[in-house]
Design goal:
The chain has about 500 residues and is mainly alpha-helical. It is built from 21 helices and 6 strands. Helix 5 crosses helix 8, helix 16 packs antiparallel against helix 17 and helix 17 crosses helix 18. The N and C termini lie far apart (about 85 Å).
């Protein structure tokens, strides 16, 4: 999985004090411990701070015993983080205080506590936390738009991202909360700076976890809005959709127009749509009792390559439409890349500022990123002005869940789809043409004609001539017919004399 963001120096954890336990801290609020006995309390590592309750009351506030080493000011995101000589430690419960010390980097914790409070770019840059904001913007592009961040962080920390069921094979292959926590928590752990080193600490800070979850959800919403704008303003023109100039106003899209209405129409209803497109759209707009139900599990036409689609079957051509590919390129590799694809050069790199994929260090395609694009593309085609998870009978979350469930149940197909996108978006292999029919190319036919011509020619001595032979052949070529006849007669006479 792609990784790496500027502004973070991962700390190397020091050995835990003697008598410490390596088990994860218990969940829940800490219980106030009795006054510690100094003679038996393990000393913190030199240069670190020891966080302990200020009193024996139930107050969750902790005080830090100052040491000779003061906190460094927040560092800018583009500066290389300085090495932390000794990580700090915190006790999480009465029983754990005697056995375990949890190490953490106070600078990273301070940045977490700061970034959730800053909404302005300049303030984030000044505080040195802009890199955390950019990391949070990346998360929905890995995971999708329907992410319960509070559930993922809380349940993920409680069981370290593992499944609630010890036997993964026994779990039904249906995308549910268990899969959501297992997959999304791993993405956050890998992609969000400092998170993997501070899971033990965050288990003791439900207040900070709640703030981070709320903040990540808000940032993901802003990233989604930017991604929708990027697709909405360009996709119809790139795809050369008829009447694209009339559809720049989003309120005129959806089933208010037969072009976008056909793209949103479930592929199973296409014959009915094509028979009476105006009536079909009117029934959907008016919520007529006899209208065809546009359900989330009735997948829309824009997902399909109709050259591969087989009536009565759902898999052939699914997620392979030109519209889906161009929307994916618009989002991850940029407008110039999508334009190149529309012109037949799918792997030409665009110019300009770095793409989203470049910032994410992304060179592979994830199933969740494909479903994310499909969800955003559905919204850009409908007539809604503001983001909504539902559109009439259509439920976006159920739409996403149904496609992810299919990918869980058919891993081979999911891998094939991801590879299909990877080749066309990032290159690395010659894509198979959708119109391929195993017929020989013009190049193959040309080579065959050369071989046939050589086989039909009579055999002759192709040994290279030396200089004398070459000169003799040249003289023969310049000789007149009379000279040739005379030379032939002399050669015959010489043969008779055994020369």
């Amino acid at each position: 999985m792609p990784h790496g963001f500027l502004g973070l120096q991962r700390i190397h954890k020091r050995p835990i004090a003697q008598g410490a336990s390596s088990r994860a801290p218990s969940a829940g609020p800490p219980v106030p411990p009795p006054a510690p006995r100094p003679s038996k309390r393990p000393h913190p590592p030199s240069g670190s701070s020891d966080l302990s309750p200020e009193s024996d009351s139930g107050d969750e506030e902790r005080t830090v015993k100052k040491t000779t080493k003061k906190h460094l000011p927040p560092r800018a995101a583009n500066q290389q983080a300085e090495h932390v000589d000794q990580p700090h430690e915190v006790a999480d419960s009465q029983q754990a205080r005697k056995k375990r010390k949890v190490y953490y980097d106070p600078d990273i914790v301070q940045r977490y506590e700061t970034v959730v409070l800053l909404a302005k770019y300049d303030a984030r840059v000044e505080a040195g936390v802009e890199y955390l904001y950019q990391a949070a913007r990346v998360l929905p592009r890995f995971m999708g738009t329907f992410v319960n961040y509070d559930l993922v962080l809380t349940a993920g920390l409680a069981r370290d991202g593992k499944s609630a069921d010890d036997d993964r094979e026994a779990i039904d292959k249906v995308w549910d909360e268990d899969h959501e926590v297992a997959w999304y928590f791993r993405v956050i752990k890998d992609q969000f700076p400092g998170f993997s080193e501070h899971t033990a600490y965050l288990r003791q800070r439900p207040d900070l976890v709640s703030q981070l979850a709320k903040w990540m959800k808000a940032v993901a919403g802003k990233a989604r809005s930017s991604d929708i704008t990027r697709i909405k303003d360009n996709i119809l023109f790139l795809a050369k959709v008829p009447q694209a100039h009339e559809l720049t106003d989003k309120t005129r899209r959806g089933f208010k127009n037969t072009v976008t209405g056909r793209l949103l129409c479930p592929v199973k209803y296409l014959p009915k749509f094509d028979a009476e497109p105006e009536r079909f759209c009117r029934m959907i707009r008016d919520s007529h009792d006899d209208r065809p139900r546009i359900r989330a599990k009735h997948w829309p036409t824009f997902l399909y390559d109709m050259k591969q689609y087989v009536p009565g079957k759902a898999k052939p051509g699914l997620l392979k439409s030109a519209l889906m590919l161009q929307a994916y390129q618009l989002l991850y590799t940029g407008l110039s890349s999508a334009k190149a694809s529309a012109q037949g050069d799918a792997r030409r790199k665009g110019k300009g500022k770095p793409s989203v994929a470049h910032k994410m260090e992304m060179s592979v395609v994830f199933p969740t990123s494909i479903i994310y694009v499909a969800t955003l593309l559905h919204f850009t085609l409908n007539s809604q002005v503001e983001w909504e998870e539902t559109d009439g009978d259509f439920d976006g979350w159920e739409f996403s869940r149904s496609l992810l469930t299919c990918m869980l149940k058919d891993r081979k197909w999911a891998d094939e789809i991801c590879e299909w996108y990877r080749i066309r978006v990032f290159g690395g292999g010659a894509p198979d043409s959708d119109d391929s029919d195993d017929e020989p190319s013009a190049f193959d036919l040309f080579l065959e004609e050369i071989d046939d011509a050589q086989e039909n020619q009579p055999e002759k001595n192709n040994m290279p001539l030396d200089d004398d032979e070459a000169e003799e052949d040249a003289e023969k070529a310049l000789a007149s017919p009379e000279d040739t006849e005379l030379e032939a007669a002399l050669s015959q006479a010489a043969g008779s004399n055994n020369w």
